[in-house]
Amino acid sequence: MEDNEITNGASVPPSGGETDSSARILVVDDEPYMRNLLVKTLNQFGYKTIDTAGDGADAWRALHETSYRLVITDQKMPKVTGLELIKRMRREEMMQPVILLSGTLPAEELGRNPGLRVDAMLSKPVSTAELLATMEKLLQTAENDAVMNGKQIRGTREQPNAQTQDQIHSPARILLVDDDRDRRHLNSEVLTSSGYNVEGVNDGAAGWEALRTYDYDLVITDNHMPRMTGLEMIEKLNSARMEVPIIMATGNLPMDEFDRKPWLKPDAMLQKPYTPLDLLNTVRKILNTGGAANNGSAKLLPKIF
Prior knowledge:
Strand 10 (268-271), helix 11 (276-289) and strand 11 (299-301) form a beta-alpha-beta unit. The longest helix is centred in the middle third of the chain and has 21 residues, at 128-148. Helix 2 runs parallel beside helix 3 (82-91) and helix 8 runs parallel beside helix 9 (230-239). The protein starts with 24 loop residues before the first strand and ends with a strand. The chain has a six-stranded parallel sheet with strand order 7-6-8-9-10-11. It has a five-stranded parallel sheet with strand order 2-1-3-4-5, sandwiched between helices. The protein is an alpha/beta fold. The protein has two domains: 25-148, 3-Layer(aba) Sandwich (Rossmann fold); 165-301, Rossmann fold. The chain has eleven helices and eleven strands.
């Protein structure tokens, strides 16, 4: 087990930001050991106001009795699962950010509910650094949204915006290239639920054919794939002088190749594992700026553990 994985010992916080110790958090998990470990870990890093629930049904009652700033929930639980809890929350316009922390991410069920807002999904076992970094992002984003909308952060329910900023404009057309069907499906659902027009293919060869046939505003590609790698696809795009922003999202970034051929470096890079929030933030940044390659630099989001 890595030094910064969730254990009974302390570890180093992932950032230098201040912990919002006033944030009241609800931890939902049917395993007592995991609940206690999460509470102890969060306490060590300044989160002192934490309630727990043994399953989704208990959490549902707690959400009607107490105001929470963040919910961290397991998926497979008796009575009410994590996704069922999130569905109930969104139906009653409870808009607190939710982290789905599970050993198996429910790709099929998410596919049947493309509009369901799940703010972040983390696979067990998770590192302390990744969990804390995700929490900080969600709490800060929620606080900024509340300030911009003139709303108080307290309270279990907020009126959702009719449309997100991404949905107001004509949807960007995104091509997802990844041979991992579950990852491709999850990324597609995350982006589609945020208003983007998404198409997915299973390797670089299929991606190249799609790019020769249709116009896209952005390409998100894995690297190691059958028939044609992501890097080989980028080389073809470069040779054909086809200009489209590219995000490479992969487990092992080919930095040696980029050092030898810097003109192939994509506009942004994400190293697996990354959160849906990392993906959305990177997509929004690239689309809003017209591609980081325009200023000669690509942003690398490092693997946390």
